Amino acid sequence: MSLCDISSSSYALRRKEFLSLNKQLHAAGAQSELGLPQITVIGNQSAGKSSLLEAITGITVPRDAGTCTRCPIECRLSSSDRPWSCQISIRQEFDNSGERLRNISEKKFGEPLTDKVQVELSLRRAQFAILNPHVPWHNILAASAETLASMSAKSNTSLQFSKNIVCVDLEGPEFTELSFIDLPGLVQNAHPDIVELVENLVISRISGNCIILVTVPMTDDIENQKAFRLARQVDPEGCRTIGVLTKPDMLQSGSSKMLQNWLDVLEGRRHPLQLGYFCTRQPDDDERMDGALPIQAREKEEAFFKNTLPWCNSESSARFGTKRLVDTLSRLLTGFIRDSLPKILSETNERLSKCQEELSTIPPPLKEEPAIYVLSQITRLCSEIQTVVQGSIDTPLIQSHRTKYNMLKLAIRGTAPKFVPFTADENIIWQKDLTDDDDDKDSGDSDYFSDRSKGRSPSAVRSMNLTDVRQYLSRSITRELPNNIPFSATVSAIRDFQKGWPQLIKKCFEEIQILTLKLLMDQINQIFGRFLALQTHIRILAQELSETHRTACALVLSKIIEVEGSPFTQNTHYLQSKTNNWLISPSTPSNDSNNALTPSVDFPYILNMLAQAGIQVSSKEELVGKLSLLDAYEKELKFMAEVRGYYQVAYKV
Which GO MF term does the entry hold, naming one (predicted)? Predict the structure, then answer.
């Protein structure tokens, strides 16, 4: 099949359909969700990219000193029997801060053009519109090049670069079906932020399902080309990269070594690429100033490669010229699209199924007035919260609270004073757990307290024997009469075991608050989850209300804790009872509180209990002798009993 017949063949028709589909998908923004095929042109600044773009499209692009292309330009060529025409559009894919938009739109920028001379100014206007989104389009479409330059100079809000795209649809009988994106040239001698911005733009566009076309000027070493390095970065195997060597006419005929190096690159002996290299020759500045026509430029290009060494002797003659490059790109892109369609279709069906599944979860529209509906849902929330607070098997808030309260009780029990009714000289390991027998009976959860060793908190009061207590009381005596226990000593001992209570209560309170607030938020999410804005508003109100009650409750707890710090009780009967109990029980050691010693217990049993406590007694007389030693510590034992008795009152209340 010859090149002249390809436009009218069935292959050309299929190619047109493929590229048209790809164009429609890009215009709809499908590239943000699907890996759509495309050709992306990259290159260093002044690499001949603009000249190549003009040669492929036949239009004139803006040329200024420095960087003139500041946003991607997508060129879409289509063969047609109709006369030449050009339609410029703008595709908004990102907002002003560079974040991708959820709804991508492509809008026509002005009327279709039928004169090629008008294209350059229209491209300037379109790029200005992208870089200045705050300026209305109707002010831009009528502006001259001088007006645009003046507006740019005066503006302080213009963007340096943009990811949004100027789309150029070209149609005419001279075109081959092709589409590609031309990116801004990579800069080196600019502010580091600008350099990084352009590099990130290039990398984002050449990653993924993309053929990378790298323009490499032959006036510079290929190792110095940043564009080539970036292409290697995303395509290390060189599977989807095409090199286009530009400016071969600027090489001196005497630079034989440089010419040979570039010939080696072109023929794949150096820096090989699977898709290979092409070499093009474009009009120089003088030829452009003379108004060289595209057909004349292609004729000069053909003659240059045919008559200039070493190109005329190269075995890769099919790799010379813009026409061969365009035909190859068109064929590659068509095949790329064809091969990608099954995957695109699969991804589309998968996302469509997911979307339909999500749509099916949307509840039916409301049948009542919104205000009435909101009121009914708030009433429902209040009713359900009330049910939860009252207690229910389905909503175990109270059960979780009870667990926290029991943990608090256990922790407070662990602060009980540890008094050992022996002197330091006796060196006895006291094994009895000084918990009152009534603790377990009233806990409501015997299993929870079955292991009494768990009753000690890490901050439990240190143990004190009779010697310690005597020294403590001796240091506390001021003006008291002999054999009187200073009340200040009793108060100090009581406060000593209470000093950890505020922190334990605060921890319990915070845990209760977290549990309650979580349940409240879960109920709100369940009832108002359909309306996210309303749900957020209700959550904020609920959190504010919860914080108000938390502050009030914390104040009450603080007052209660403060009152507990002053030793006082009207439960004098219980206090006296516990004090009397502890006056007796410390002198009869046991490691089993359920089998406390009594006068009616047989002496062998007493010996056994004492042995388990670490006390060796061989006769009743020896036992009486040991117990008689306690008479000398009557005051200390009384102090122990009073403090331990008051602890029991404070703990039980």
Answer: microtubule binding
3-class DSSP state for residue 113? Answer: strand
pLDDT digits (tens, 9 = 90+) for 373-403: 899 999 999 998 888 888 777 777 888 888 8
Tell me the C-alpha to C-alpha distance, in Å, between residue 621 and each of 206, 597, 618, 624: 101, 17, 8, 5
What is the chain's mean pLDDT, rounded? Answer: 81
* pLDDT value at residue 167: 93
Domain spans in the chain, listed from the N-terminal domain onward: 39-59+211-351, 70-182, 388-569
Lowest-pLDDT choice from 1-5, 39-43, 397-401? 1-5
Please state the pTM of the whole predicted model. 0.59
Contacts of residue 379, defined as CB under 8 A and 6 or more positions apart, other chains included, come to none
Fold of 39-59+211-351: Rossmann fold (3.40.50)
Structure token digits, residue 485: 């226990």
**Which of 46, 347, 61 has its CA nearest to residue 185?**
46
Give tens-digit pLDDT for 22-38: 788 877 777 777 778 88
CA distance 216 to 84: 31
Angle at the Cα of 260 from the Cα atoms of 254 and 266, rounded to 5 degrees: 130
Tokens of 41: 């042109």
- Dist CA 629 CA 425 (whole Å): 12
Specify the DSSP class assigned to residue 71: S
Residue 215 C-alpha from the chain's centroid = 38
Q: Which two tokens stand for residue 348?
A: 């589309």
Whose structure tokens read 């290159």?
Answer: 43
Query: Is the confidence at residue 596, as pLDDT, over 60?
Result: no
At 570-582, the pLDDT tens digits run: 787 888 887 787 7
CA distance 225 to 263: 17
- What is the rounded distance in angstroms from the CA atom of residue 613 to the CA atom of residue 596? 12
Give the dihedral sign, CA 58/64/67/71. negative
Contact 67, 156 (CB under 8 A): no
